[in-house]
Amino acid sequence: MRNGKACAKAPTAMNRNHRTTPSDVLRPKNVGAPMRRTEDPRLLTGSGEYTADRKPDRPLHVALLRSAQAHARIVRVDTTAALKAPGVVAVLTAEEIAGDFKPVIPFSRMASYYATPILPLASGKVRYVGEAVAAVVATSRYLAEDAIELIEVEYERLEPVARPEAAVAQGAALLHEEAGTNVLIAREFKKGDVETDLAAAAVRVRGRFEMTRKAALAMEPRSYSAEYDNRRDALTLYTSSNIPGIVRDAISESLSLPGHRVRVVAPDVGGSFGSKGSLYPEELLICIAARKLRRSIKWTADRLEDISTSSQAFAEIVDAEMGFDANGMATSLQADVIGDVGAFSIYPWTCGLEPVQVVSFLPGPYKIQSYRGTVRGVATCKPPTGPYRGVGRPVSTFVCERLMDMGAKALRIDPLEIRRRNLVRADEFPYRIASGIIWDKTGFIDCLEAAAEAAGYDQLRKQQSEARKRGRLFGIGIASYAELTGIGSRIAVAPGMPINTGSETSKITIDSTGGITAAFGVASHGQGLETTLAQIVADDLGARFEDIRVIQGDSDEVPMSTGTYASRSAVLGGGAAKHASEILKGKIKRVASHLLEANADDLEVSEGKVSVLGTDRTVSFKQIAKAVYSDMKTLPVDAREELTASYTYDPINGTTAAATHIAAVEIDPATCLVKIHKFVVAEDCGRIINPMIVDGQVHGGVAQGIGAALFEELIYDDDGQLLSASLVDYVIPSAPEVPMMDVVHVESESAVSGGFRGMGEGGTIGAPAAIANAIADALSPLDIDVSVLPMTPERIFRLIQNAKLRVREKS
User: Fold this and answer.
1) Sheet strands side by side (includes 504-510)
2) Of 117, 356, 433, 774, which residue has the fewest beta carbons closer than 10 angstroms?
3) Parallel, antiparallel, or unpaired: how do β-strands 473-485 and 655-667 relate?
4) Span 292-314, pLDDT tens digits
């Protein structure tokens, strides 16, 4: 879309397995309609409730003393003066709370993996700047912060290990001595004889690629409120998390409390982008402290804490080579990946989440016959890496798409054409790529052609030719990608992870007044799930959209919940909603058949009413609820079914989403700034639930991808000190840097329930690669390649200067 107006649609690949009846045609459809988000009135008027807004009875507040050392033994912690400070209730160290919990272990069945324990406070030594060493609990945050200054810590400095290459060198200091190595995870994917195929290739292209560390930088920093119930010795943790069910289970196990005495609620959450999708030491700490002190306790990170201690993204170095035959068909690919995973594994995903997915997704949507990919996740003195929008695929797409463009250049084939030749085609699905991932039938070629048409690709090339005649640095970049979404139980979200994240539960209830409540295990952090899930329930239950209340993000509402991640909410939550709605609709029809004295097969459910087909006889949901719950004379005893239904949906494999991004950029030779003139996305997320929300997700994802491509970088020095820890130094795109976008939807329905595909991560996957290729294309007259992101003005300046130096040396 452009300026909110739908652009012309490309030809769609529709495969609707749906029997149309006259009643279906007449019934208003909610799925597919651009309905306004029901969340927005409260959020836009300041009526939302975030974790920091909680006001428990007489809460205490926590401030944390964080290490200024990257790697050091803790010799002594003296809390004497802090304990005497005004308002201080307790000062906690690792020794103080050692008997109050069991460490949380992000374990995995993967071979060659070491699981680092998650501790609420550093014990024995610190491993990165910002790791919490002690906690002050006081009557206000201000007094707690004052008391922090009074704690004395004596350190024995150890050699910092800040660079992953140095961490794997012989004799490097070990962050975890008990592991015996800084390589916390190692894996290999292999298919075919890649060495032979590379040797036989007509063209071989290679490079050393890097995407540097990123911060998720959600609007709302991490925030926790542990509210203690003295009567039941129970805890309710309000948390800015997108995995409340996983957090509940981990805290229950760590504190040896049964699940019914631990409730975890994610209220309104101001963004996550993955960074709030793990269990954090601070969550564990305030629950331990609340139970120990038998008081409610609150903590909210300031911006410095959030940037320097929340899980971070990417930090991958990839040495890769691709071979092509004379016709431009990719024959072989090999890659060696070093992932800088930081000091610890994260729960539950392990440190393998990001680097292993880089290697497993590296072949992308292409027909590459042989492949070898190796990966090492290396511990360094930095905060852990963890989930970030796209998880591994922004890096793998960047590498694969750069190699595709490099191959096209070497073979003198247009970048669009080389993708046409190599993408998996419609008659080749399901397709197992060289790393073993299986793509189901998806619009790879449809997206490529739709993006080229919407961008006016041929005209763009003519425009580029004219610009180059005038000496302008104008470039065009393409990126195609595929991703698994809504992953089911057969595929672990993180390799070897034993936690079941492959199913989700929906529980739908009609109460005695006819009100409808739909509870889910997913947890929204900005995606509009209250709206989209209600749209699905309204259609499949036959209810009015405005009558449905959606509850999500509360571990007490359904027996098993995990949360929202890996583009799963529409596929798994939506699938569960459809099945639960059908079960409940069956109950409604059976009750209505008694009230209307008609066969259930002759009834139609629509807009909150049940009608006898071909007549004007109807009964409302409210009347049905009254008959079931209140009026004991209307129904036979055996016909009084509780108007509730629950369903746990597992899509088994999940489904594939795909897109092609095309960017046109220009580089100012004086400032080396990159201006994006055009950006087009053609994406296939299956059957669209709400086009307005889908477009918003695309726009937001691309904006974030622009940040990864051009601006955002967490810079650490050789001593492990973060040099870009504030928004003065950590640069994100603002409105002028985000262009207007054309978005084309290719709706090829998936085989999972509802025909949905996930799509929340696509913008960050495709945009960095497309922009990188566009910059490389703009700089190609200077014989410059792009191998590092972000491509900041400083990096572009150095590339141009080096190119000029090479020319001078040759002359």
Assistant:
1) 548-551, 516-520, 504-510, 644-649
2) 117
3) antiparallel
4) 999 999 999 999 999 999 999 99
The answer to whether 136 touches 125, Cβ cutoff 8 Å, is no
Quote the pLDDT of residue 319. Answer: 98
User: In this structure, are strands 262-265 and 316-324 parallel, antiparallel, or unpaired?
Assistant: unpaired
Which residues, 6+ apart, have CB-to-CB distance to 588 below 8 Å?
A: 510, 541, 542, 605, 610, 621, 624, 643
User: What is the predicted pLDDT for the residue at 28?
Assistant: 52
- Separation of alpha carbons 497 and 400, rounded Å: 27
- pTM for this entry: 0.94
What does the pLDDT read at residue 703? Answer: 97
Which residues are CB-contacts of 431 (< 8 A; sequence separation ≥ 6)?
A: 367, 424, 438, 439
Residue 100's contacts (CB-CB under 8 Å, 6 or more residues apart) are 255, 288, 291, 292
HSE, CB side, 13 Å, CA atoms: give it for residue 76: 4
Structure tokens at 662: 């095309």
Give the pLDDT confidence score for residue 713 in this predicted structure. Answer: 98
Q: In sequence order, what DSSP letters do the residues of 139-199 get, joined into one string? A: SSHHHHHHHHTT-EEEEEE------HHHHTSTTPPPSSGGGTSSEEEEEEEEES-HHHHHH
Low-confidence ranges of the chain (pLDDT < 50): 1-27
The residue among 348, 284, 274 whose CA lies nearest residue 501 is 348
Token pair in block for residue 363 = 């072949």
- Give residue-wise pLDDT tens across range 552-606: 999 999 988 889 999 999 999 999 999 999 999 999 999 999 999 999 999 999 9
Catalogue all structural domains in the chain, each as residue range(s) with its CATH number: 22-47+503-649 (3.30.365.10), 51-158+221-269+276-309 (3.90.1170.50), 312-490+652-810 (3.30.365.10)
790: cis peptide before it, omega within 30°? Answer: yes
Computed over every residue of the chain, the mean pLDDT equals 94
